[in-house]
Amino acid sequence: MKYLLLLLVLAVAWWLWRGGARRGQVAAATERRRLATPQDMVACAHCGVHVPAPQAVVESGRSYCSPEHQRLGPRRA
Question: Strand, coil or helix: what is 52?
């Protein structure tokens, strides 16, 4: 009788552990999807490096990757 009870307790523990792992995987996938939202990228007018649009420094319709490149202005060919 005690072996049957032990088997039952182990089966319930295994079932809970497996169910929790599945819920955790779904939550992790949802979190990755939320964090992986693409952003618009713009090229720096001085060096050409692409930076996310919200982080770019914009002046006179041109985007720059940093205030230093903004100060230097667009690259001359």
Answer: strand
First vs last C-alpha separation in the chain: 87
Tell me the pLDDT tens digit for each residue of 36-76. Answer: 678 999 999 999 999 999 999 999 999 999 999 999 999 87
Quote the CA–CA distance of 3 and 20 in Å, as a whole number: 26
3-state secondary structure of 59: strand
List the beta bridge partners of residue 42. 51
Q: What is the length of the chain?
A: 77
Instruction: Label residues 31-63 b or e (16+ Cβ within 10 Å = b).
Output: eeeeeeeeeeebebbbeeeebeeeebbeeeebb
User: 63 to each of 7, 39, 68, 76, how far by Cα in Å?
Assistant: 66, 15, 12, 15
Q: In the chain, helix, strand, coil percent, each to 5?
A: 55, 15, 30
